[in-house]
Write a structure and sequence with these properties.
The structure is a single chain. With 250 residues, the protein is α/β, with parallel strands linked by helices. The protein is built from nine helices and eight strands. The protein has two domains: 121 residues, no CATH class; 113 residues, no CATH class. The chain has a five-stranded mixed beta sheet with strand order 4-5-6-7-8. A three-stranded parallel beta sheet has the order 2-1-3, with helices on one face. A hairpin with a 4-residue loop joins strand 7 and strand 8. Helix 1 packs across helix 2. The longest helix is centred in the middle third of the chain and has 20 residues. The termini are far apart.
Length: 250
């Protein structure tokens, strides 16, 4: 059995798909370089990422299937779920014959898993937009930490670039050691390994204390619903909310 291998990026995956189409191959296994393991009974075929070829492949998908399919593929890919690459390939293979009609085949085994993953990632991105709390660092930029279940920084980047366009900020995905940085002109995603929270400015310490006090004063203990709170605000987010820092509701 042949294992098709790529560098783990979305452009790398699209390059691999373009290679499969060109060579008329039907893969049994697609793995990123990070998840590749030694297998004496399999041969590995590595495909190097090619940005222009990936862009051409994405344009072909938008033309032959639909622009919406491009977004579904990207969102599902960001889930990082085991075996997601093969699911996306099967979706693409079906799309090459059905065209835009593919996304109406919601019960098809090649379509349903992709839709489910894409919508799950989209929901996580929506949550992150609501829970991000920027704090002013002593270095003059605004910092926020988060631990999303999926790699959603690229999905939330346009939102924060619009909403917080006039300030330098950095959103830190602690789970993946990634950071999304904005310099008032453009955003960039890069590796970022940092322990703890950067030193905060004096003003930020004061404002954070005031905000926690306000939040505590408007809380009605008799109306607390822990089950509903857990449903809408998973525990993995709570330690990064300024208003809940040091709160027993954590």
């Amino acid at each position: 059995m042949a294992i098709w291998c790529y560098d783990g990026t979305f452009p790398g995956f699209l390059t691999l798909c373009a290679t499969l189409v060109t060579q008329g191959e039907e893969p049994e296994s697609i793995l990123s370089a990070d998840s590749l393991h030694d297998d004496l009974f399999s041969r590995t075929i590595s495909v190097e990422s090619d940005e222009p070829r990936a862009e051409k492949m994405l344009a072909a998908i938008a033309s032959r299937i639909s622009p919406n399919s491009c977004r579904l593929l990207w969102q599902a890919f960001l889930s990082g779920s085991p075996g997601v690459e093969l699911l996306l390939w099967r979706y693409l293979s079906l799309g090459r014959t059905t065209g835009a009609r593919i996304d109406r085949l919601t019960a098809h085994p090649a379509v349903a898993p992709v839709h489910r993953l894409a919508h799950t990632v989209e929901r996580e991105a929506h949550r992150v937009k609501g829970i991000i709390r920027f704090q002013e660092s002593a270095g003059g930029y605004w910092y926020a930490a988060v631990e999303p279940a999926y790699q959603v920084l690229e999905l939330v980047a346009p939102h924060f670039a619009r909403r917080c366009a006039g300030m330098n900020w950095l959103i830190h995905d602690r789970r993946r050691c990634l950071a999304l940085a904005w310099n008032r002109t453009e955003w960039r995603l890069a590796g970022f390994d940092c322990e703890g929270v950067p030193p905060l400015s004096t003003d930020e310490e004061q404002w954070s204390t005031l905000w926690r006090g306000y939040f505590s004063s408007i809380t009605i203990p008799e109306r607390q619903n822990r089950r509903l709170q857990q449903q809408h605000l998973p525990k993995r987010f709570r330690s990064y909310l300024t208003e809940l820092t040091g709160s027993p509701t954590l």
